[in-house]
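Running co-folding for 2-phosphoglycolic acid.
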Amino acid sequence: MWSLQPQNMRKKIVAGNWKMNNDWQEANTLTTQVLDLLKDRGIAAEVVIAPPYVHLEKVVSMVSGTNGVSVAAQNCHQESSGAYTGEVSAAMLDSIGVQFVILGHSERREYFKESNELLAQKVNAVFDHGLTPIFCCGEPLSIRESNQQMEYVTHQLTASLFHLEPAQIRQSVIAYEPIWAIGTGKTASAEQAQEMHAGLRQHFEQKFGQEIANNIPILYGGSCKPSNAHELFAGPDVDGGLIGGASLNAEDFVAIVDSL
Ligand code: PGA
């Protein structure tokens, strides 16, 4: 089940999801180091940094002027404004120069009970404000063990993304992150990743047609590190990575960017 078009038609992306890590001093140092390391390289991928909300504005200003590097938020609220104490809207993110929003991360789904239906609303909010979703999907171990992973993950996509206009799907970024591989050190094999990515692309093709399906970047996430990134990214339907733990170390993160 391989792609019909060469993978170089698609945008390649490596995104670093810092999660709830780094105070400002650490965030400043890490961003500076990443930018320094990227400076002397011809970057083949678009690099996205996703710090916690409080650092977004400063990190946006640090990366501005560096071609191919942009900033993502790790979440947003589905409404533009209102009485939602503690929340941040896509409109606010847009107003400070954020370009991407990670949505549907398994930690948001699990700890904050975000459903496929809620995520459909968040995806709409992100598009309403001209941002790009990095939409996460992935199965828990029990689903993988019962070999239901393709049905499970394609359902996540159908429920949260299939109401979108083709032009919006064309702009979306997908991140396949098997939950059993996140932060566990247990990576999906390159074959498992490629098989899922090809299946997801085929799922998009059935609804939105081949041209759009062939152009959606599908990233892999889950214990991706310098030692396995090259092999994982070799799959023709694997267009980069969403990196958690390894994105907290500048050299590791840039080594992963270099693996594309
Ligand atoms: P990990 O996290 O690289 O630490 O496994 C990936 C993610 O949760 O996005």
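Result summary
Residues 1-8 have pLDDT under 50 and may be disordered.
The pocket of 2-phosphoglycolic acid is lined by residues 17, 177, 182-183, 221-224, 242-246 (CB under 6 Å).
Job closed.
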